[in-house]
Design a protein that fits this description.
about 170 residues, mainly alpha, about 70% helix
Length: about 170
């Protein structure tokens, strides 16, 4: 008997959801028909119409990307923090700006380990050496020739940074 009641309730709930969806689609279709019958005719009407459509999309995007409670906020922060690895950007950063960007990398647990394994702290300590190397980079790579120019530059610098990083760590 209990299973019949449960089955009946779930069937009733499914029917209610279906009816709600039908009503929503009918309301949307009515709105589309209404707008089709009475399109904006003046420049001001068109601007108001465009704003009414675009503004909510921009708000939605900003809330997801730039508000701390947004579901894409951490990814945005990590992307901004990782911009220090682009020599074209890094050469124009002040020390404080670079430290702020590197701090954003703490959102990634692998870079923010406890103790001596904390990569963000190591990156901060090595900033002055990295910046010296970055200043030697040409302002533009020929990407058509070498799509991995920045990666190869980073690797070449990595091969020569051990002694200089040790010197920075002593400061």
């Amino acid at each position: 008997m209990c299973s019949l009641q449960t089955g009946g309730k779930s069937l009733l709930a499914a029917q209610e959801r279906e009816e709600t969806e039908r009503a929503t689609l009918a309301a949307l279709e009515d709105e589309v028909n209404e707008q089709g019958d009475h399109p904006p005719l003046t420049v001001d009407d068109w601007q108001a119409h465009v704003v009414s459509v675009v503004a909510p999309a921009i708000e939605y995007f900003n809330e997801r990307m730039f508000v701390e409670s947004g579901d894409r906020f951490i990814a945005t922060e990590l992307f901004e923090g990782a911009s220090v690895f682009n020599p074209a950007i890094a050469k124009h950063l002040s020390r404080d700006e670079a430290m702020a960007k590197l701090e954003k990398l703490r959102h990634l647990p692998a870079l923010n380990l406890e103790g001596d394994d904390n990569i963000v702290d190591k990156l901060k300590r090595g900033w002055s050496t990295y910046r010296q190397k970055v200043l030697m980079v040409h302002s533009k790579f020929e990407y058509n020739k070498d799509h991995s120019a920045i990666l190869s530059w980073h690797y070449q610098q990595y091969l020569r940074l051990d002694d200089e990083l040790a010197e920075d760590s002593r400061r």
